[in-house]
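dumping the sequnces here before i forget
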Amino acid sequence: MNKYWRSIEELNDSSKLKQEELTNEIANKKALNDPESIETFASTRRDFLKVFGFSVAGAAVVASCKKPVEKAIPYLVRPEEIIPGQCNYYASSYFEENEYCGVLVKVRDGRPIKIEGNEQSSLTKGGTSARVQASVMSLYDLARYKEPLATGEKITWEKVNNEIPQKLEEIAQADGKIVLLTSTVISPTYRQVITELQERFQGLDWIQYDAVSSSGMLEANDRSFGKAAIPTYHFDKAKVIVSFGADFLGTWISPVEFTKQYSSRRNPDLKEQMSRHYQVESMMTLTGSNADERVVIKSSDEGIVLLNLYNEIAKQLGGTTYAVDQSSTDLSFIVRDLLLSKGESLVVCGSNNPDHQVIVNAINSMLGNYGATIDMISTNRVKQGDDRKMSQFVEDLLNGKVDALLAVDVNPVYNYPQGEAIKDAIEKLKLSVAFAKEKQETAEACKYILPLPHYLESWGDTEPTDGKFSLIQPTIHPLFNSRPVQEVFLAWCGKTGNYRDVIKFYWEANVFPKQTDNTEFTSWWNTVLQRGVFDEISVPEEQPIIDVTSLKATTTRIKSVSKTQGDVEVVVYEMNGKGNGAMANNPWSMEMPDSVSKVSWDNFAAISPRKAIELGVDNEDMVALGDLELPVFIQPGQEENTIAVALGFGRSVSGKVAEGAGFNVYPFINVVEGRRMYQAFSTVKKLNKTYPLAMTQTHHSMEGREIVREAVLEEYSRKANAGNESHERHEKHHVTLYDEPEFPAHQWGLAIDLNKCTGCGNCTIACQAENNVAVIGKEQVRNRRIMHWIRIDRYYSENPENPKTYHQPVMCQHCDNAPCENVCPVSATMHSNEGLNQMVYNRCVGTRYCINNCPYKVRRFNWFKYANNEKFDFNVNNDLGKMVLNPDVTVRSRGVVEKCSLCVQRIQEKKLEAKLENRQLNDGEIQPACMQTCPADAIVFGDLKDPESRISKLFEHPRNYHLIEELHTLPSVGYLTKIRNPHKG
Amino acid sequence: MYNTEFRGKLIEGNKSLGQISQDIVRPIDAKTPRWWFISMGISLVMLGLGLYAKYITVTEGIGSWGLNNSVGWGWAIINFVWWIGIGHAGTAFSIFLLILRQKWRTSINRAAEAMTVVAVMCAGLFPLLHMGRVWNFFFVLPYPNTRGPLWVNFNSPLFWDFVAITAYLLISASFWYFGMVPDFATIRDTTKSKIKKAVYGFFAFGWTGSSKEWLRYEALAFILGGIAAVLVVSVHSIVSTDFAVSVVPGWHTTIFPPYFVVGAIFSGFAMVLTLVTMIRKLYKMNDFITDSHVDAVTRVLIFVSLIMGTAYFTEVFIAWYSASEYEYYMFFKNRVFGEYAFQFWAMVICNAFIPQLFWWKKIRSNITAVFIISLFINLGMWFERFNIVVTTLAKDFLPAAWAGYSPSYIEILLFIGTLGLFGAGVLMFFRYIPMIAIHEVKSVAKYDKPSHERKHRNHEE
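..and the predicted 3d for all of it:
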């Protein structure tokens, strides 16, 4: 055998070497078993590098695992209608705070996340209001009651249903007084349930109580027509609208419905048929800010002005006139206009004084408006609260004449003038039961607190106007242990079963027979449920004849008020986005800037510029109105001696959002002979204190710039581009050395009709809901950092005591030559080939150069981390509130810029749908959130590449212009000039 | 001593070459004076406050500043431009005066260059910190990546800015450092401390002073100087494009590049003046930094101040002449007579009027007055940047979006922090680096060797 050797040494003495190897091996093995000797091993450079390399790699791997693992559990058995990632829409109805709206609820993966308008509704026709938009957030409110409570302790529903009826029975047996206090009930089935309850407990008194009442109208119509109801109005049929302090576009009766009607008549292409709107008021309301002409009067003069107007018209038409003090306000031009459009005019009044309403009825009757613009047959049911019944109840309650109170979704402790006294009285009652959705003053004073489901969790039906039915259907399983009040009442009556069946039963018996098209109830029910609404075909009826004597009795009470009653008049009103305070814990609603003042998070004393000089106060100074201290906001257009204060703030018991926001001004409401009057006299005194107000706009003049272009109808009918002459000139100057941008398939554009837009701010909240726009709180809003992607700029011009007002929604203009795009160092914002200016959040490093270079200042920066941050304890800081987020839109992180995307997720969704169906997109198929819900139909979205699309036509319209178009930014958003229609001569 | 026809002696005190070395190196070997520790302490406290502000900025967000949806840039960018302006002087001083063969620069240029490096470092902090997501700052770098590759936006002035500033910082730091190599060698050779010998020896790169080395050294200085000369003009021109490329009134002007460069030189020279008057006073360097040096700088300042005044006037004139309503509003209703009139007039008075006092020889030769005026110029230049950055953003096109701006305490602390950094940097420079370029000063002394001659004469006698 050959001998193989590795080295000379081995060859010479192989045994020794082998021995050496062996001993080393053994030593090594030993060492491995001996922990002490392992420690003595010196690490080498190689070892160091290994360890170093391993730890760097490890650190890199660990650091790259940025996101915590979140587990999603798939459906084992998938519900038939749910496709993960796709939305379902369910028709339903909104009725809160006396506001009705037909809605579609967008449900994604079992969660309602957005409210859209229901186009099938013949009342609201697809429009919504900001409150409706914000209502979905209230579903996920941490302040909601989660369990039935008895004196603060959790109890079961079984116990509730045992104990309470027993106690009620006892009280009823002893001839005690039981009061059921609800807000207006427009549900026919609910009414029936209440009737049953009344039958079960003899002596149960049902009182409907509205926080902001229209009882004066009910009473006046009772006097005039013998029918205590609110008529339906048709602003679309009125050529001349005269409103005495009625904020019908903002808060009065049915604002969404009225805005739809009103805006349809605000088209200058109707020429002479375009409506003319006069507003006679003492404070600047949203409606007043849209009027063609606005007359400022003292609210205490309203009766005299009305009666004078009546007399003038009566004189011309040969009616009876009544003696009254001469009013100092000349309304002869209104008289002339009203007489010219008899049967085509509409006079409305917002006062809760029945005397004023009686005069208004007489005027409308003389002008032949009943049956034309006003319908007294088919009446509006959204406000049925009777002030005198309520004040009688309060009196009884305070005098200890009431034994038991069932308060359903009402909050008199907060929103009745004698709230504190009511609270004490409730606490002394034998039985007090509150049905409430979320933490509120009255409920906390009651012994039992029974949680109510949110309207998105419950069944229900409504009849907001005679013959117009609609359904409420649940879109999510109740989040908490709540039960519909109707079910509870039925249980107390000894009936079981769920409320849906009760509704179905009622509809089968009462509503189904009102139609003849369908003979099978279930199929009809399913259709109605799908559509959400059912309109009874109404048979035309003769309008009731006005009782003229009602006016005579009234006129003696119309007197001018002597000046000795205090320094100033105080007018109490609701802000259109905030309502009466029931929604105060809703962060979207709270943060929405008021449509007129642009103040968010607070109410204030609105003082006229002249009065402010007289008092020596400026914005944010405090004044004392009687006992109440309020911050000053100088409001142009305010009557000199009138101070306006908004309801709905200063909640003492509420969730965290409403805490400390504003001041409760309900105590200002005067109860005169049982009627609540929303005017008062007060002293005013400057205090040496200030209070910060979060204003989103602080400069109110356009500085002569062509920002809102305007003309009057007369000029417009002579020249189509009236007020917009410069557009043509600027268009000619659009030359460039660079390549024109090319859009091969689509070019999205948006047109906004400034004549239709009322500035209500609904789009702001719709956008916020759709695009997960963060709520940032008062302090940050005050720092001018509001995140809203669409803001409504509001300008004034001319006389500060009675200015012209302009509302202009401004969102990203999606410029084809965008100044923001070329300055971003990292290309985080760029142009799509469909004309969209896109924001890439992942890429943005937050230099904010784009913000600076945007001429429209529509870009928003995430100054802080707004999600999961204790300092911003709003909805995205808790798991419940996060359920409202739209999964299609990223929640932006700290340090990135964001802005309007023209709802790119909606564009993509519809494009995909069309692609799957192998067809072209239809015009109007894609609707951004702002457009979908606009009650005024002021926003139109579409494809500019399609010459037949509505948007292309609007872009060709002589009224169309672009904001700051002289900069050659080539915006994809167009504005149509504002055309006012003031009286001639 | 070197006598020029116009300037007379550039160095006073009839010093021999050895004396020059000794005089300049003395503070490095001497015991550190008490005032140095006190000033360093104050600077470090300021630096610490700045660090705190940075911590808050990075952990909480830019929301801790006073900015808003309309005014996206504030003190951070004002201070950035201000520091960059100051950082201009050193290199400008060396390069321009080198080109103009102004030998008198040799006593001052080292200090000026040191100031440049520290000021540019101060300036560089702000663009980084003002980013919403500073941890992603590398997105601004054009590096090959796996995202497409996704490149930076070469159209963006902020990218130009980034390139210009890093280039400027690199070049001015190298220019400064290589200029010091022979002097480090001098210290290495003269010091008695072993540590110093080692440290300065390390930085001296083994300099022996051979002719070959000097030859290469000169060539390097020349090349770096050539590059730096371009950068001096480019860096502030590019900073000005951060504004000039935009569309907003008050920024969108073609005058900005020259206006910024001149403004930068102006503020830089003023800061040089502030520093050298301090060096003179603290280290008794009157022989090197003579009254005529101060005089020369003040004369330059008069001239530049006139240019500044002209620029201000031109801007206002063009705002009227252009008949652009936005420009007109910006200048006449916002700056000259409007809400920001104080800042505007503070700028004009400090920059265009106060330096005109230098026409009087009495003021030029009064070092206290010169010192105070130099501070005024620094203040005025700060106001200039405030005028540009804030007044424009506060009131641009749509009045509904107009919003005021005031800095939060965090922004103020950030600025104080950079002042601390600057102070600490300059103090370190005073303490550890020859304040005056020894070899360059020797070069202006070489034609005139009084002490040597004197010795020679003595021998003859």
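The radius of gyration of chain A is 34 Å.
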